[in-house]
Amino acid sequence: MSTTSVSPQASSAPARRPRRTRPVHWRIRFAFLSLIWGFSFLFIKVGTEGFAPFQVTLGRLVFGTAVLAAAMAVRRERLPRGVRTWGHLAVAGFFLNALPFSLFAYAELTIPSTLAGICNATSPLWGMVLSLVALSEDRPTRLRVAGLGIGFLGVLTVLGAWQGFHGVDAGGTAMALLASLSYPVGWIYVRRTLAGSSESHLALTGGQLLLATLQLAVVTPLFTSAPDGLPVVPLLAVVALGALGTGVAMLVQYGLVAEVGPTTAQMVTYFIPVVATAAGVAVLGERLTWSTPVGAAIVLVGAALTQARPKST
């Protein structure tokens, strides 16, 4: 980012304070992030109406990577260096981008975008289970264990377990839940391997998305054929999904973490299913039964409890 300086010839002129651009209030950025991530499930649904799931994911990664590349160019940042770092980023790109993005795209072939958004909210539940195994410093508490049980009770409510899961596609739901599980696997891996890296978050994320894009670029031609055309609405949905829901969203997220801390920034997870449900019902006309919002609320309560930390004395 360039700065302007006052020339010596202008020293006799009245001093003027340089105008500093005020950053948008973090609550507005928080709401914006909730909206674009919530609408991402609608964009996936619309994208799969014109393209194969792998093609939707590849397009998402291409446009998301382009946004981060532009941000790196503006800030004059370089991609990370070191074979080991790139190896870790390849694994992170698989678990945080290539795998969950693809699973959600395939899941939404058979399940509503509202259900996919709610499944996404189970990530903190999976994260707690995995952290107890992989992170020795993450000790369980009664409150967090209770949150885990409440959260999965909410999942059963959303799926209508008392009706024998009638009307719910098991395969699509399983893929959406596996996608939500993939995120904490990736987070824990990054925490154990890249937490002490001297590279900037932007550089690491740019490299991660680039490698995830290359992974999909290899896989997609093997399992899909070229589309017959480029339908406008699905194409626009993929562009929005990548540029906004991936690229811009990551930039906003890192800004929020830097300003208000990871705990507050992470709360966006609890608003995503609300937005996803509202968008699915209002825009796509998806059917909503009482068990969906009630179960989603229970999931969010449980997820919030799993993130609770004991007060320091």
From TrEMBL:
What membrane topology does the annotation report for this chain? Multi-pass membrane protein
Q: Which residues cross the membrane?
A: 26-44, 56-74, 86-107, 113-133, 145-165, 171-190, 202-223, 235-256, 268-284, 290-308
Predominant location category:
membrane
Has UniProt tagged this entry with the keyword Membrane?
Answer: yes
Family annotation (InterPro entries): AA-Vitamin_Transporters, EamA_dom, EmrE-like
Keyword annotations of the record: Membrane, Transmembrane, Transmembrane helix
Q: Which locations, inside or outside the cell, does it occupy?
A: Membrane
What is the recorded name of this protein? DMT family transporter
Q: Which organism is it from?
A: Streptomyces thermoalcalitolerans
